[in-house]
Design goal:
- The chain is mostly helical.
- A two-stranded antiparallel sheet has the order 1-2.
């Protein structure tokens, strides 16, 4: 009988403890889910990320950056946006989601309105045993445990999780669009082709582009169409004649700059910067190239060097600067100013908020513009900076090769400003580094990027060929130059050797890898060999870009 009573008591306490634990665990889980959901709501962005705008080929993965969510103090959209030009209605912001509940004072979790409890379903409360009151002057005695009963521990009070601090964002702005201007597109083309304009026609064009033509770019729903709108604007400019062309430039240039600097969706801002770089003072006629608009250069230069500007806008500005340089629209005085800005970008260290590949893209484009400008810089600063990029093994290989290629295209008519022997050895070392890295990757991962390695060798070879005239005055330098050039060329031509291809023209990778491995000692010898007065004869075969 005692055994039966003890067994029943034991079973009673086990069931009771299990029920209490289940209730407490359920409440803890619900509390954690509630806190987690509130924290997730606090982190949710106010506006979905915009579609990507078109940009030039990127040598490294593009950085992921959300535009339109720049840090700014809370302010009304009308106060944060610049005042519109004459004839343009004020900007409006799209409706935002209702404000989230604020955290209660002294707590880490947001408060929610109290919900009335249903009388039919009262909240479950844990049943705890009443505490035993100790007798006076008697120390409290520990509670006696029944046989087989597990000691019940008081549930740990869950710590309130502090939700992430909500990021202050300003709603993306949209310019109001007057759809009644849609029917005026044909008339706009006719006015632009007419050439001369009267006051009414100037007002007509101003209203059209302010209220419809460019206003469409800022609409979030038109993100996928902005590139088409940009191409439409450029076609209208190309067909404009005389005064109409100049007047249209005066209308759209300030609007594009305002759009680029305003808090609009990324596709609008990036395409606005690209459009500024594509504006022309004189449009292309037949075989004659266009003359870029000089008035656009200050904005492009300022945007490219501003660390506060989103990365995509700086890239778009550098694309515009490169176009101006390629079309010869940079004067000598302006060239010196450009050189200082571009060197600052090349030497700039990426902040913690920016991805390394995205920052390398900026540096890559800045080096391209310096290459087109062809100036070695005051006191050879361009040569020194590019040599540092080339020799720094922490830089990605694509950036180092880009610097080597640019060094071969600068203007050394006034002499080479520096130690040319050192630069030649650095270029040879770069070729050796590229070869060693690819061979080690193949050994570890069984992957061989033949086309990539060939591209590296060709870039270095082009850079070396551009230094031939600079190296020729000194016999010792000319001899060193020929040794390194021959070693790099011998590596580059292997990729197109018929002996290393099968009957279908496919590259025999294993044989190529063996041949390239055999070239490593030759490269090493050329780099470390002392300059001798007897130059080596140049090989007849030159590398090609085929693969």
């Amino acid at each position: 009988m005692r055994w039966l009573v003890g067994s029943e008591i034991k079973r009673f306490w086990v069931v009771r403890v299990g029920l209490v634990g289940a209730v407490l665990a359920g409440e803890l889980i619900l509390l954690r889910e509630h806190v987690a959901s509130r924290a997730a709501d606090a982190k949710a962005p106010a506006v979905a990320p915009a579609a990507k705008a078109d940009l030039p080929d990127m040598p490294a993965p593009a950085p992921k950056e959300v535009l339109g969510a720049e840090k700014a103090p809370p302010a009304s959209p009308s106060a944060s946006a610049p005042s519109p030009p004459e004839g343009q209605p004020p900007e409006k912001a799209p409706p935002t989601s209702p404000a989230e509940p604020k955290p209660a004072p002294g707590t880490g979790t947001p408060t929610t309105p109290p919900q009335p409890k249903s009388p039919a379903e009262p909240a479950a409360q844990p049943q705890a045993e009443p505490p035993t009151t100790p007798k006076a002057d008697t120390p409290p005695q520990p509670e006696k445990e029944l046989p087989g009963k597990e000691k019940m521990q008081p549930p740990a009070t869950p710590k309130a999780e502090t939700p992430a601090k909500e990021k202050t964002t300003t709603p993306l702005l949209e310019w109001p669009v007057d759809e009644s201007h849609r029917k005026n597109r044909a008339e706009v083309s006719a006015v632009l082709r007419a050439g001369s304009l009267n006051a009414d026609q100037i007002k007509f064009l101003t209203d059209y582009y302010t209220q419809y033509g460019l206003a469409r770019w800022t609409q979030i729903g038109n993100r996928a169409e902005v590139r088409k709108y940009r191409e439409e604007l450029l076609r209208e400019l190309a067909q404009a004649e005389g005064q109409a062309h100049d007047q249209l430039i005066q209308i759209v240039l300030p609007l594009l700059i305002k759009m680029a600097e305003g808090n609009h969706h990324p596709a609008a801002r990036v395409n606005a910067v690209l459009a500024v770089g594509e504006l022309n003072r004189v449009e292309s006629k037949e075989a004659k190239p266009p003359e870029p608009l000089p008035a656009a250069q200050p904005f492009l230069l300022q945007t490219s060097q501003s660390p506060q500007m989103p990365e995509a806008l700086r890239v778009a500005a550098l694309v515009g600067l490169r176009r101006h340089a390629e079309l010869g629209a940079v004067g000598d005085q302006t060239k010196a100013q450009w050189t200082n800005v571009l060197l600052g970008i090349v030497q700039e260290r990426p902040p913690s908020s920016r991805s390394a590949p995205g920052h390398d893209w900026l540096r890559h484009l800045a080096i391209e513009v310096l290459e087109v400008l062809k100036t070695p810089g005051p006191n050879g600063q361009v040569v020194i900076s590019l040599t540092d990029v080339l020799s720094d093994t922490n830089n990605p290989m694509t950036l180092r090769v880009r610097a080597a290629r640019a060094l071969g295209n600068l203007d050394y008519s006034q002499g080479f400003p520096g130690d040319l022997n050192k630069l030649l050895r650095e270029m040879g070392q770069l070729a050796l580094d590229a070869l060693t890295a690819e061979l080690e990757t193949h050994q570890k991962e069984k992957i061989f990027q033949a086309r990539r390695l060939q591209t590296y060798f060709i870039g270095i070879y082009i850079g070396l060929t551009g230094l031939e005239k600079a190296a020729s005055p000194s016999k010792e330098t000319a001899a060193l130059y020929q040794k390194i050039l021959a070693a790099v060329r011998d590596c580059a031509v292997l990729f197109d050797s018929p002996k290393l291809r099968d009957s279908d023209g496919k590259l025999r990778e294993n044989e190529l890898i063996q041949q390239l491995s055999n070239q490593k000692p030759t490269l090493t010898e050329a780099i470390t060999a002392p300059a001798s007065p007897t130059p080596l004869p140049a090989a007849k075969q030159k590398p090609t870009s085929g693969g």
